[in-house]
């Protein structure tokens, strides 16, 4: 067999393998972002609903519940965004330092043009702190909107609480299922864990706030 054809076939196979690996990496990266978004939305849902249930334990006024939920949404979204920005920026600093070390090492073995081309490819893969912060804040806000919208138009106190719990239960089941699909885990077990966790958070907040309110503190 012609050695040139053999080398050409090997090169094509290597390129094909590289394309497959790149696609798998891109899918994995997207899945991680989606899973982080689902977890952020779940956090916004549970924390905001728990705050609203806590206030609802001592105040039947719809205005107080809505204002509390809105304050929780804004505070939580800002906290998530700042925390994600700081975390990703720290990761960015570490990876930039690694790129500089690798650039220095490659410069001893390669020509300058090759080094610059490799460096530009490395920088394209770096995380974006602003993008991560915006995605985190948006995901939290979307989750927090569920109990807020559920309670906004219901004046009857007991019905309002029941609707909030029902809407949060449905959203928790959906988020648990999505998280399981993205993480390649069991949807039933994942949804059950998320549901139980959300119910516990709301029940504990409601119960403790009711207890403190009844004691007159």
Q: Pairing-aware structural class of the strands and helices?
A: mainly alpha
**Ends: how far apart?**
90 Å
Radius of gyration: 25 Å
Instruction: Profile the largest sheet.
Output: none
Q: Round the mean pLDDT to the nearest integer and report it.
A: 79
Q: Shape, please?
A: elongated
**Structural domain tally:** 1
Number of strands: 0
Q: Number of helical segments?
A: 6
Name the poorly predicted regions: 1-12, 17-28
Give the amount of beta strand, in percent.
under 5%
Task: Give the helix proportion (percent range).
Answer: over 70%
- Pattern of helices and strands: HHHHHH
How would you describe this structure to a colleague?
The chain crosses the membrane at residues 64-82, 132-154, 161-182, 194-213. GO terms for molecular function: iron ion sequestering activity; iron ion transmembrane transporter activity; manganese ion transmembrane transporter activity. The structure is a single chain. With 217 residues, the chain is mainly α. 89% of the residues lie in helices and 0% in strands. α1 (3-58) runs parallel beside α4 (129-151), α2 runs antiparallel to α3 and α2 (62-107) runs antiparallel to α4 (129-151). The protein is elongated and about 75 Å long.
């Amino acid at each position: 067999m012609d050695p040139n054809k053999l080398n050409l076939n090997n090169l094509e196979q290597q390129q094909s393998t590289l394309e497959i690996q790149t696609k798998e990496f891109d899918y994995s990266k997207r899945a991680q972002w989606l899973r982080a978004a689902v977890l952020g939305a779940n956090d916004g849902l549970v924390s905001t609903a728990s705050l609203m249930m806590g206030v609802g334990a001592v105040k039947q006024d719809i205005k107080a519940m809505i204002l509390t939920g809105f304050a929780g949404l804004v505070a939580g979204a800002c906290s998530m965004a700042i925390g994600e920005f700081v975390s990703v920026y720290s990761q960015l600093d570490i990876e930039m330092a690694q790129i500089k070390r690798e650039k220095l090492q490659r410069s001893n073995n390669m020509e300058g043009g090759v080094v610059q081309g490799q460096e530009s490819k490395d920088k394209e893969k770096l995380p974006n702190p602003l993008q991560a912060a915006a995605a985190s804040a948006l995901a939290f806000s979307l989750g927090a909107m569920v109990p807020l919208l559920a309670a906004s138009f219901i004046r009857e106190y007991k019905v309002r609480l029941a609707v909030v719990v029902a809407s949060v239960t449905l959203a928790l089941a959906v988020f648990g299922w999505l998280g399981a699909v993205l993480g390649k885990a069991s949807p039933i077990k994942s949804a059950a864990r998320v549901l139980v966790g959300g119910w516990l958070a709301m029940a504990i907040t409601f119960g403790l706030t009711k207890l403190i309110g009844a004691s007159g503190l």
